[in-house]
Amino acid sequence: MASAIASWSGENFSCPICLEVFSSPVTTPCGHNFCRTCITKFWDEQVQFKCPVCNERFDARPDPRVNTLLSELAAQFRTNVKVKEQPCVEQAEVPCDVCTGTQLKALKSCLVCLISYCQTHLEQHQRVAGLKKHRLVEPMDRLEDRMCKKHDRLLELFCKTEQVCVCQFCTETAHKFHPVVPLKEEYEVKMAQLGKIEAEVPQMIQERQQKITEIKDTVELSKKDANRDIADGLQIITALMRCIEKWQDDFNETVKEKLKSKEKQAEDLIKELEQEIEDLTNRTLKVKPLSHTKDHLHFLQAFRSLKNPPPTRDWTTVEARPPSHLGTLRRSLDQLVETLNMELKKPCDAAELKRVQQYEVDVTLDPDTAHYNLILSEDGKQVHDGGVGKILSDNPKRFTMYMYVLTRQSFSSGRFYFEVQVKDKTSWWLGVARESINRKGQKISTPENALWTLHSYKDGFIFQDDPVVRLPLRAKLQKVGMFVDYDEGLVSFYDVEARVHIYSVTGCTFTDPLYPILCPGLKDYNGNNSAPLIISPVNQTD
Questions:
Q1: Do 371 and 485 share a domain, yes or no?
Q2: Whole-prediction pTM value?
Q3: Domains held by the chain: number
Q4: Is the pLDDT of residue 85 over 50?
Q5: Are the beta carbons of 127 and 136 closer than 8 angstroms?
Q6: Is residue 324 pLDDT above 80, yes or no?
């Protein structure tokens, strides 16, 4: 008997509902067998009680009895027959929807039942005639999402017009005139686009990470700038307080000196008045006895000496008023304002110079542009007047009228800064020129003629403009810094050693590349002004 049971197939002992080997099998009035749990659950969900296999209806809910024989046979089948091993579902694989407990890997999905089956539970679809008509496909997860909600058909096409997945029936109705392609074809197109996106995303991430770094660096720079500004502000306030204290001391001293002078003047006037009073008193003493005399001769002789009174001042013109210090206060305030402006300008200029020094560029002189009289160093950092003209090729870039020389480097945007040593010089030119500057003819060196230069001579500075701008000479000037903001149209000059701003011109229009331009000036017969102009590295000191 055991050998006969072992030779039977699993369908002889499988519940039609769960498709598993019977567990506590019971028999319905129509003679079909089910697991007690399966048939009970099935009838719990039904309004009418019927057999799941033959659909026979029952007037009342049956009370199925345990099929003892079938229960024993099913137990022996479990013992003597091993179910063929099947792989358990792994990650990214579709599980069997029927398996209870350990889920096995699905081999097929049914588009009619909307269920995925492992090898064991797929058996009835391969055996039962009615189930054989169902459409089986490769395992699919979430089958209900793959079906058209309107036509209950598989979504196997893609509408390019509305960019949605559709079924075959959809192409005959709402999407009849829309271009549609198989899902696989659109999948390949979208995958190509996804590949492009995947290639672009790392670059986008890198750009944003770089932007984060830039923002963080900006914050750090802002902190440093804030700390520097606080320190500069404290320095300015301290200097202003010293100026105000000195002004107060000077003002007090001036007022005291004025008061002392007023007191001395008053003392002198009082002494003079007292002397006049004394003289007048003495005169009174002489006049009074004479007024009582009856001696005509004595009266006339004495009156002669009293006829002319002692000299006295006209005191009606002398005013006795308290001194006014308003004029002194006004003059002192004017001096204070001037001093404060000078003290305030110093740290501001120093901070401004430090800021523009960050845009330092390395420039060298271009011998092809140098005037015949100019001598350049081998490294292209120095230039001076050689006194006589050299015989050189007629290069179209060379200056032939003025003793100018340009740098090799030009600038068409952004900001740049460089420094030139002018120590021991009595005359020089320094600035920037457009590439289009006239190098052969004789024209006034002004912005209108593509040149922005500061000229130093013995009496002061001149910014070459029309009209020229005259500036006071700075004593002991050794190094000049020049800053250009191409986009903002700004040109500025600085006294580097004193850390003071010399002059700025704004609103410049730059339309082509700019070149730094130098002119060392002529040396005289005594060798004066023979020192070179030297392009120097920037030393950014606090």
A1: yes
A2: 0.46
A3: 3
A4: no
A5: no
A6: no
Cα 337 to chain center, whole Å?
38
DSSP letter for 360, please. B
Asked whether the beta carbons of 446 and 464 are under 8 A apart, the reply is yes
Q: How would DSSP label each residue in 396-458?
A: TTS-SSS--EEBS--BSSSEEEEEEE-TT-S-EEEEEEETT--SSS----SGGGTEEEEEEET
**Structure confidence by residue, pLDDT tens digits, 441-490:** 766 677 887 889 999 887 788 888 878 888 887 777 899 999 999 999 99
Phi-psi region of 530 (alpha: psi -120 to 50; beta: other; left: phi over 0): alpha
Range of the domain at 33: 1-83
Give 202-229 as a DSSP string.
HHHHHHHHHHHHHHHHHHHHHHHHHHHH
Together in a domain, 291 and 381: no
Q: Is residue 55 part of a domain?
A: yes
Are 378 and 510 part of one and the same domain? Answer: yes
Give the strand pairing for 490-495 and 500-505.
antiparallel
Do 309 and 379 fall into the same domain?
no
Closest CA to 430 of 463, 386, 468: 463
d(CA 51, CA 53): 5
pLDDT category at 344 given cuts 50, 70, 90 is low
Strand stretches in 340-414, DSSP E: 374-376, 382-385, 405-406
Average pLDDT over residues 52-71: 84
Q: Please indicate, yes or no, whether residues 231 and 308 belong to a single structural domain of this protein.
A: yes
